[in-house]
Write a structure and sequence with these properties.
single chain, 344 residues, alpha/beta, Metallo-beta-lactamase, Chain A, 7-stranded mixed β-sheet
């Protein structure tokens, strides 16, 4: 008995000392035990302090949030194979149609973004259309593991609808999660790795964030954004991020983007959120770093994830644009369900 206990303890110690599967001494973001950011790995601010502040503060009553939801012309999206379009489904979910490909970005069609279906952040705005009305999807890109970006019920439905024809592109560490859900056509990428689908190149890019889906897997999977290059369009989606030099790095590698999807929500309280989410002023700075011809503000107005009012991000974005002398035509938000036709 004594020796079995010693052997078990030794096994646990040995297991704990084994290298992280993705460890690479030549890549600083792939550490011995987890993934890291490129520029800021300071300790995260206290989640419990934030929750205590919420419980003990006398926050003013927020007015009702009733944004306009457009009825998406899904018949047009289904037949379209010539025009480049972007459709905002809500939060960070979007449909990009480029060069005849249908690419879904961080699709979430569930009612809640949570590990359980009966609690957690609930959809505050109706979906503009059900998942069944999507056109046939060719590629799904996922930015990171958080539940408001990687929604397994949605991914399972998409996989069943499209069988083996649909390619799922995910950050390092997430392929096994999708395959455990019988989603087989999965490819995981490291920062700056890319894959080609027809004449479109999709590259996974760095961001300032973190990942977690359980108590035991913090930063065990990578996070980032997607740069999608086609002959007629250069599209960038940052994923969730705090402000960092990563976006100057993206510009230096790819040049100016035609259109960028940049988060503008989930920024209050700033002392807690600033390492992981940009506020509207920082989002405008990202727009400038990327030299984007047009930026679209996302990650707002769908799920309540932070303390700013649901309607605040577009108003704060207007203030930031004026302060930083950027045209409101260069950085705007879309209505839920809106289809934007992109010039080639």
């Amino acid at each position: 008995m004594k020796w079995s206990i010693i052997a078990a303890a030794g096994f646990l110690v040995f297991s704990g000392c084994q290298s992280f599967k993705y460890y690479d001494p030549n890549k600083p973001h792939r550490g011995k035990t987890q993934f890291y950011n490129n520029y800021d790995n300071s300790p995260k601010a206290s989640f419990w302090k934030w929750q205590w502040e919420r419980l003990t503060s006398n926050a003013p009553t927020e007015p009702p949030f009733q944004p306009e939801v457009l009825k998406t012309d899904t018949a047009y999206l289904k037949q379209n194979r010539t025009e480049n379009t972007l459709t905002w489904i809500g939060h960070a979910s979007a449909l990009l149609q480029v060069e005849g490909l249908n690419i879904l970005v961080d699709p979430v069609f569930s009612d809640r973004v949570s590990p359980v279906s009966f609690m957690g952040p609930k959809r505050q705005v109706a979906l503009p259309f059900p998942i069944e009305e999507l056109p046939p999807i060719d590629v799904v890109v996922i930015s990171h593991a958080h539940f408001d970006h990687l929604d397994l019920p949605t991914l399972r439905k998409l996989a069943k609808q499209n069988d083996k024809a649909l390619l799922f592109l995910v950050p390092l560490g997430l392929e096994s999660l999708l395959k455990s859900e019988d989603i087989d056509n999965v490819k995981e990428l490291d920062w700056w790795e890319n894959t080609q689908v027809k004449n479109v190149t999709l590259t996974f890019t760095p961001a300032q964030h973190w990942s977690q889906r359980s108590l035991w897997d913090r930063n065990k999977t990578l996070w980032g954004g997607w740069y999608i290059q086609a002959p007629s369009l250069k599209f960038f989606y940052s994923g969730d991020t705090g402000y960092s030099k990563d976006f100057l790095d993206v510009f230096n590698r790819f040049g100016a983007s035609d259109i960028a999807m940049i988060p503008v929500g989930a920024y209050e309280p700033k002392w807690f959120m600033k390492q992981q989410h940009v506020d509207p002023e920082q989002a405008v700075q990202m727009h400038l770093d990327l030299q984007s011809k047009l930026s679209i503000g996302v990650h707002w107005g769908t799920f309540r994830l932070s303390d700013e009012a649901m309607a605040a991000p577009p108003e704060d974005l207007k203030i930031a644009l004026q302060k930083m002398n950027v045209s409101p035509e260069a950085f705007r938000v879309m209505k839920h369900g809106e289809v934007l036709k992109l010039k080639k």
